[in-house]
TrEMBL record:
PANTHER family on file: DEHYDROGENASES, SHORT CHAIN, ESTRADIOL 17-BETA-DEHYDROGENASE 8-RELATED
Keyword Oxidoreductase: yes
Spans traversing the lipid bilayer: none
Pfam families listed in its UniProt record: adh_short_C2
GO MF annotation, one: oxidoreductase activity
The protein's name in its UniProt record: SDR family mycofactocin-dependent oxidoreductase
Annotated organism of origin: Jatrophihabitans endophyticus
Record key words, sorted: NAD, Oxidoreductase
Gene3D superfamilies from the UniProt entry: NAD(P)-binding Rossmann-like Domain
Family to which the UniProt record says this protein belongs: Belongs to the short-chain dehydrogenases/reductases (SDR) family.
Length: 289
């Protein structure tokens, strides 16, 4: 399998075992979410692509736009699958419930959910927001948003009667604390650790009906979330305060979206049908150094 220059996984032609499946992906307008959407579409999976498509005041770098979401939808359809783009904020559970109902109305079912939406820490000098606002927003997106996604999607997957897969895109910060005494990074670390607890709880809850729940823990991925001035400033301010200065065991630094997508594809597929409750690092050994 080869990956295009933007790091997304390209069409592979082999659709065995994927036909008729439907996936809902949050944060799908760009970056990892788009990569996951296109890889699933290449295998014949219809996609519900969800994104907020507006700025959150406390996030110090630009978020995705409606144009980005429309591009994902167009790319999914070019890959040979149907796409339902939905503008929704994962902090609002009612919007995700509506997205699931729209998915059922459009495609008849739901089999896969990828809770990918998230916001990362960063630093900017001209920040007019308070630590309290930052803590609240970052927990709301990165933890409450995951709970909202799981609880909105799970009943539809269960109703399908053939099991399914829920995948939480977590972070190495859910394994190895990256908190640096700042509200954004404190909340990010707390949310990602909380996400692991949610994953384990729902793996137990949904296991008897054949729905698997797992977490993927990426290291830094080359997407707009990490490749921006605010994140570069945050790294510069903290490189001497983090153990081993953000180095990983393989000395590769950032990985590509396609590297995370490969893990998502495996966890979404029948090949991992007995894998649940697992934290899967895709981090080049970042969490062990």
């Amino acid at each position: 399998m080869t990956a295009p220059a933007d790091g997304t996984v390209g069409p592979v032609g082999d659709r065995d075992g994927w036909a008729g499946k439907v996936a809902l992906i949050t944060g799908a307008a760009r970056g990892q979410g788009r990569s996951h959407a296109l890889a699933l579409a290449a295998r014949g999976v219809d996609v519900v692509a969800v994104d907020i498509c507006e700025q959150i005041e406390t996030v110090p770098y630009p978020l995705a736009t409606k144009d980005d979401l429309e591009q994902t939808a167009a790319d999914v359809e070019r890959a040979g699958a149907r796409c339902l783009p939905v503008v929704a904020d994962v902090r609002d559970r009612s919007l995700l419930l509506d997205a699931v109902e729209r998915a059922r109305a459009s495609f008849g079912r739901l089999d896969i959910a990828v809770a990918n939406a998230g916001v990362a820490q960063g630093y900017r000098d001209d920040d007019g927001t308070t630590p309290e606002q930052q803590w609240s927003d970052y927990l709301a997106v990165n933890l409450t948003g995951v709970w909202n996604t799981v609880t909105a999607c799970a009943p539809a997957i269960v109703d399908g009667g053939r099991g399914g897969s829920i995948i939480l895109i977590n972070s190495t910060s859910g394994i190895k604390s990256m908190s640096r005494g700042e509200a954004r990074s404190d909340a990010y670390t707390a949310a990602k650790h909380g996400g692991v607890g949610l994953m384990k709880a729902y793996a137990i809850e949904l296991g008897p009906v054949g729905v698997r729940v797992n977490a993927v823990h990426p290291t830094a991925v080359a997407t707009p979330m990490t490749e921006n001035d605010a994140m570069r400033a945050w790294v510069e301010r903290n490189v001497d305060r983090v153990a081993n200065g953000f180095r990983d065991a393989m000395h590769v630094g950032r990985v590509q979206p396609a590297d995370i997508t490969e893990a998502v594809l495996w966890l979404a597929s029948d090949a991992s049908r007995y894998v649940t409750g697992v934290s899967l690092p895709v981090d080049a050994g970042f969490t062990i150094v």
